[in-house]
Amino acid sequence: MTLSSFPGDTVTSCAPARALRGVEDLRAALAPARREGRTIGLVPTMGFLHEGHLSLLRAARDECDVVVMSLFVNPTQFGPNEDLDRYPRDEERDLRLAGEAGVDLVFAPEVAELYPDGFATAVEVDGGLTSVLDGDPARRGPGHFRGVTTVVAKLFNIVGPDVAYFGQKDAQQAAVIRRMVRDLDFPVRIQVMPIVREEDGLALSSRNVYLEPADRERAVALSRALAAAEQQARAHDSLAAGLDAARIELAAAAIEPEYLEARDAETLAPVAGLTGRPILVAVAAKVGGARLIDNVVIEPQGG
Ligand code: AMP
C-alpha cells in the first residue's frame, strides 16, 4: 500500500504478512491465483529471518505473481543432540519482514499439522548425496536430509509452486533437492541464490546469534579459508594447494573443522583435483556455541 502525504513525498507502509496455519486454508487461499494461471513462488524457511532469507524473498517477488513463504522449524531434520529446542524464533518480526519483502502468504503450521499421528512416510535421496559432508553418519547423518526432503516434498505438494527458492549457503541441501525434483518429476523449477555475507565475509545464518563476540571474530576464518582455497587453487592450478591454504586459515583461528572437503558441485562425488566441472569446497566447524557451514564453488575457467 502506498500512502502519499505530500505531492512527491511517498511513504510506503507494509502490513505484516498473513500467517496461515492449516494446509487446507493455504490451498484455499491459493486456489484463485492457481485458477487464473498466476505463477506461484515458494521460499521455505525456518524463520528468524536475515538478509539471506530476504534475498530469496526478493527474487521470488521479482519473478512470481504470488509469493508464499513457509515458516516451519522442521523437527525431523534435527538430530537428538541438536539445537531444535533453542533454535531462535521470532514469528512477529518474521511476519513484519515478510510483509516488507512483499510476501503474500506465510504458511506457518504447527508440527501436528504436517506430522499428524500415524505419519509414516519419508522421501529419501540416496546416490551418495546424503551420506557425505553433513550427511556423514558421524555428523548430522542422512536422517537430516531425509527430514529436509520429506518436508520440502510436502511443501511442494501443499503449495504447488512454479518456482522454489533455496540458498547456496546450504549447498548440499540444494543439490539434494535438485536431485529429488529431477528423480520424482516435481513440476517445479529450483532457483538457488548466492550466499549473502556480512561485510567481513561471515555467511549470514540464523545460528550466528549463538556466537559470543570473541567467537564471532574467529568465525570469519571460515569464509577467509574458502576465499583462500579458491584463490590458491586457481593460482597454482591445484585443488590440493587450495585446500592447504584453507587449512592454514582455519588453524590460525584455532578452528578444527568437522570437514573441509572438495566435491563435484552437482553429484557431490569426491574429486582428486580440478576436473573442468564446478567444484564445491565445503566446510563445517563448531565455533563456540554455533555449528557453522559455508562453501565456495570453484567454477572452471576458460573454454
Ligand atoms: P533456513 O531458515 O536456515 O532453513 O534457510 C532458509 C533458506 O534460506 C535456505 O534455502 C537457505 O539456504 C537460505 N539461506 C540461509 N542463509 C543464507 C545466506 N546467508 N545466503 C543465502 N541464502 C541463505
* Low-confidence spans: 1-11
- Share of helix, binned: 25-40%
Secondary-structure-derived class: alpha/beta
Name the bound molecules: adenosine monophosphate
In CATH's first tier, which class of the largest domain applies?
Alpha Beta
Mean pLDDT: 94
CATH architecture of the largest domain: 3-Layer(aba) Sandwich
Q: Treating each run of at least 4 consecutive H or I residues as one helix, how many helices? A: 8
Order of helices and strands: EEEHEHEHEHHEHEHHEEE
* Strand numbers in spatial order across the main sheet: 3-6-5-4-7-8
What's the N-to-C terminus distance?
49 Å
Q: Tally of extended strands?
A: 11
Structure description:
With about 300 residues, the protein is an alpha/beta fold. It has two domains: about 20-195, 3-Layer(aba) Sandwich (Rossmann fold); about 205-300, Pantoate-beta-alanine ligase, C-terminal domain (Pantoate--beta-alanine Ligase, Chain: A,domain 2), CATH 3.30.1300.10. Helix content is about 35%, strand content about 20%. It has eight helices and eleven strands. The protein has helices spanning about 25-35, 50-65, 90-100, 110-115, 140-160, 170-185, 215-235, 240-250; strands at about 1-5, 10, 20, 40-45, 65-70, 105, 165, 190-195, 260-265, 280-285, 290-300. Strands 3-6-5-4-7-8 form a six-stranded parallel β-sheet, sandwiched between helices. It has a three-stranded antiparallel β-sheet with strand order 9-10-11, covered by helices on one side. Strand 10 and strand 11 (about 290-300) form a beta hairpin. Helix 5 packs across helix 6 and helix 7 packs antiparallel against helix 8. The protein starts with a strand and ends in a 5-residue tail after the last strand. The model is unreliable at about 1-10 (pLDDT under 50). The structure holds adenosine monophosphate. Adenosine monophosphate (AMP) binds near residues 46, 167 and 203.
